[in-house]
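Lecture notes, unit on protein representations.

Consider one protein chain, 281 amino acids long.
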Amino acid sequence: MKEVSAAAVTDMVAKLYQEANFSLPADVVAALKAALAAEESPQGRAVLETLLENSHIAGRNRVPLCQDTGLAVVFIELGRDVHIGGGPLDAAVDAGVARAQREGYLRASMVAGPCFRRQNTGDNTPAVLHLDLVEGDAVRITVLPKGAGSENMSRLAMLKPADGVPGLIDFAVDTVSRAGASPCPPIFLGIGVGGTMDRAAVLSKKAMLRQAKEANPDPALAGLEQQILDRVNDLGIGPGGFGGRVTCLGVALEEEPCHIASLPVAVGIQCNSARRASGSI
């Protein structure tokens, strides 16, 4: 049994959360450059050029890519042969988020008592933690800072099985159409299908962790991703909502079994600042 200290988890989360907010992943930068080459709208090209310049400045100067430095969504793959010593895992994660917020001068965006009090917790905690037990003796941590502009445009539907793939596609496209310019396009879509209402939403978040141009290994699902991407880009919303060919940079879909009478679909929208960072202990 390998022992990993809670302090090591805190250190890793703090490092990753700052890195995700300061440096846009290389695959996302490449997707923006490809979009610039494909975009025909002058306004759209100007938006893409500005986004690329922004990512360069943020990475060079170690400043946030966006003023909304995100709610802390943290995914941990915990090896079955690992024991976390020195404190609870969730507390270690929250300590890392709080340190990143403090040391990186990141905006505190989490409020407690959302129905009535809406009091800022002051350090962007608690994190939204998703834990998976996996084989091995490592701890893999991925942080996904999630801004409200894109999160607020995400939607969930409990479709009927008879709606099938056409209904799924229509719901995804309608979600983007309703969102318009609000989620800061060009966007990424993470789509979760199956499970239960809550599980579909988690799957949509997991889909956002995939590389920008990485297709689902299942050819049928990869084809479905491409169909949705083509339909969304045909909307003509374009970069910044100013019109153009590139509304969406990529679609990632994950599925798992569900009840015979259900077809849960969660369409998660991620803005152009598709921030994420991963590391292992």
